[in-house]
Each structure stands twice: as structure tokens, then as C-alpha cells.
């Protein structure tokens, strides 16, 4: 398999941009950042949670520590295509992402509690622990089209722009296509600044000049609040005190 980064520790700041803000920001960034080798590409995710959505409910309460587990692919995979099992944690504002690459069919068996991969590494042991602690099952598919930029002087500085966010709660298999219902207004673009440390002063000035303000937004959280939770209420699948 190709080499990949399996451990991340960084700050992530999110922003919702209008199309005009996006166009203006791209002009400002063109001398300092460049598009990575993937260009515009599609990211597909299956989010795993407990039957009563414990992980996302806890996350939305904004605790000091929170975690989520997802299965991710770049594009629509086949059974033998490498995908990523990712454990994402956030502690005191720092995001820690740890992931292992497995063929899709093997990753699906593992996450269905049907057999552990023949792989001995610390990251997989951490994922083992999460699977043992929570009775996890696939809950939502979320996909989006992304352009990622990295700093010319500091490659660890990354900015991503996500559009065409979509979701579904049926056919929860990455090989079933990247279709879904809209999750974000088509006139909005979700931007994430992924920072190894403090935001560069020049970038802060650009965002301020364009009146781009930081927001709190979770793709899975928005999917739960806007779609999954209302569906549970309508079917009596959850009790609200």
C-alpha cells in the first residue's frame, strides 16, 4: 500500500463561507498556498455510533474530551480498495486523529465485530478499545467534495474547502456510491484551517478583512441534529425528558 500519515495532532478551526467569500479568499491565498496533488476529490465516510447515539450526543455537549469513529475512503471503493478506520479525539481544543489502512471488506468485518485484522500496532489496539467500550454500528454516511491547500512556506498549514455535503442513513456501505441528501446549503462552503500551532498573523488578517468568522460545525453533528434525531422523535425511537 502507499505510504500515508496515520497520526495527526493539530488545531482545527471551521468557517462557513459564501461563494463570494470563497472566491475572494482563494485570490488572497494564491501567493501563499497551493492546491495539493489530489485536486478536487470526494471524501466518503461512514460514522459509527451506539444504538442510542451516545458518541454524538456527548460530543454536542462540548465536553473537554470527545471521540468518534468512522470509516473513510477517497472516492467510492471496491472490496479490495484500501480505506481508513479512523479514531478521532479532541482534548482541550487539540484534535488527535489516528488511523489504519485496511481493504474495505476487511475493515467492514472488523467494525462488525466479525474478526480482527492480522495487524499488530498501537493504533489498532486503541480502536480495539473503542470497539470494546461501545457497541458501535454504522449510523450515517456523509460525503463531500474537497479542495485542500497547503502552505508554500509551511506545508503543515492546511486549509480545506468542502462543498456539496450530503448524507444518507440507508445503504451504509462505502461501496454503494457517494449519493445522498444535502446537508449544507449549496451556497455555503465549509472551510477548515488545520493548524500545527497558532494561526499565522497574515491569515488572521485576511480572514478579518473578508469578514470570515469562525463557527462551530460538525458534519456528523449537523446530520444528527437536522435529520437523525428528528427521525427518532417522529418514530418514538428515543425518549426526551
From TrEMBL:
Residue ranges of every copy of the VTC domain listed in the record: 10-225
Gene Ontology BP annotations: polyphosphate biosynthetic process
InterPro entries in the record: CYTH-like_dom_sf, VTC_domain, VTC_sf
One Pfam short name: VTC
Name of protein: VTC domain protein
The organism of origin for this protein: uncultured Anaerotruncus sp
Amino acid at each position: 500500500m502507499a505510504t500515508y500519515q496515520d497520526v495527526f495532532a493539530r488545531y482545527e478551526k471551521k468557517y462557513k463561507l459564501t461563494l463570494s467569500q470563497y472566491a475572494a479568499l482563494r485570490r488572497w491565498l494564491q501567493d501563499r498556498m497551493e492546491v495539493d496533488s489530489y485536486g478536487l476529490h470526494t471524501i466518503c465516510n461512514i460514522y459509527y455510533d451506539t444504538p442510542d447515539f451516545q458518541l454524538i450526543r456527548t460530543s454536542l455537549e462540548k465536553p473537554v474530551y470527545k471521540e468518534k469513529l468512522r470509516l473513510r475512503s477517497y472516492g467510492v471503493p471496491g472490496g479490495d480498495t484500501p480505506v481508513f478506520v479512523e479514531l478521532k479525539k479532541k482534548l482541550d481544543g487539540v484534535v488527535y486523529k489516528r488511523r489504519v489502512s485496511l481493504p474495505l471488506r476487511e475493515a467492514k468485518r472488523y467494525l462488525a465485530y466479525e474478526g480482527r485484522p492480522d495487524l499488530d500496532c498501537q493504533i489498532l489496539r486503541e480502536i480495539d478499545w473503542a470497539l470494546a467500550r461501545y457497541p458501535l454500528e454504522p449510523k450515517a454516511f456523509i460525503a463531500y467534495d474537497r479542495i485542500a491547500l497547503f502552505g508554500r512556506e509551511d506545508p503543515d498549514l492546511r486549509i480545506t474547502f468542502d462543498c456539496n455535503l450530503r448524507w444518507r442513513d440507508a445503504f451504509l456501505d462505502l461501496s454503494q456510491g457517494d449519493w445522498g441528501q444535502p446537508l449544507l446549503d449549496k451556497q455555503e462552503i465549509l472551510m477548515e484551517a488545520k493548524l500545527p500551532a497558532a494561526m499565522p498573523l497574515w491569515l488572521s488578517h485576511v480572514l478579518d478583512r473578508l469578514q470570515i468568522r469562525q463557527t462551530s460545525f460538525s458534519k456528523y453533528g449537523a446530520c444528527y441534529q437536522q435529520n437523525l434525531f428528528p427521525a427518532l422523535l417522529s418514530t418514538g425511537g428515543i425518549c426526551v425528558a
